Amino acid sequence: MRILFDHPNPFLLAHGGFQIQIEETMRALEKAGVEVEFLRWWDAAQRGDLIHYFSTASNAYLRRAHALNLPVVMTTLFTETCNRTPQQLARQRRVKAFLLALPGGEGVKDQLAWRAFQLCSHNVVGLKAERQVLERVYEVTPDKISVVPLGLSEAYLEAGPGDRHSSHLICTGTITERKNCVELAEMAQATETPILFVGKAYHPADPYWLRFEKLIDGRWVQHHPHVEEEAEMIDLLRKARGFVLMSDFENWCLSAHEAVACGLPLLVPDQPWSRERFGDQARYFSKAGGIADHAILRRFYREAPELPPPRVQLYSWSDTAEKLGRLYRRLLG
Question: N or C: which end of the chain has fewer CB within 10 A?
Fold first, then answer.
């Protein structure tokens, strides 16, 4: 069984959690004895039994694969969509159905991703909330969807709590608009709550990064460059007072799970992804936002030393690979 991994965006253009997911999944599959290669678009002689496409493949891509009897499994990140309300998802479904039912324009309709989720052989997502998007919006039948949790490395799973002696909270991840790093930094200064931000921008000239950079004062807004080595990141997490994240939306959120593995309590947005994973065991920002979040942040900072991390199941990348291996074998018969 040879699996071909495909992804449309070069990693050199943007780093982040999806890259980690792809690379760690590949390594774990190889350790489990599954032959995995990156699909070489220039190599007409390359052969594989199944493509795992990490994103949403075009309809033309899927039809060509089908013509070659080559199954395609898709992993799409429904980062924003999975955090919409049931009413919003229902409205999205109605709009999709209306537009697809309009006469003509088949060429334009075929450029949309809406049919891809039914055309592919199988969909793999990390959350039940993402499965609901596939079922409620794109009308994919349950038998074509698998929920496969994302893993953590053995280093994180073995890390355990540290002494948490540092006076700051910690926020890890790319410095970008979706993470609301500028807004969180401004809140840190307004409430005199020290937060260490660990991460880098997509580009050093990115206007959002430049806004964030001006807020770094070494006291309330501290910054540590992106960390490549796991051991260093684990050390930073285990020393921190607690973990805080204020993203517009997430899906699985590897950084929050890494913090849990290192024994940190969480303060995160009140959204479907976070409620699914952490339930009532995390602290949450207000859904309304605004000045109420200032009090929530200060209270979390004050109480964090006595708060436990969420007691949720954490998975290894080997667990992820095991579930995917079973799925691949089933699809290949």
Answer: C
pLDDT at 228: 81
- In the chain, where are the structural domains located? 2-151+316-332, 154-306
Characterise 173 by phi-psi region: left (phi > 0), alpha (psi -120 to 50), beta (else): left
Q: How far apart are CA 117 and CA 236, in angstroms?
A: 40
pLDDT value of residue 202: 85
Parallel, antiparallel or unpaired: strands 195-198 and 122-125: unpaired
Q: Is the CATH number 3.40.190.10 carried by domain 154-306?
A: no
Which element (helix H / strand E) includes 322? helix 317-332
| CA–CA dist 111, 124 (Å, integer) | 22
Helix (H) or strand (E) holding 107, with range, is helix 106-111
For 51-93, what is each residue's pLDDT tens digit? 999 999 999 999 999 999 999 999 999 999 999 999 999 999 8
CATH 3.40.50.2000 fits 2-151+316-332, yes or no: yes
pTM: 0.92
147 closest CA partner among 130, 125, 118, 132: 125
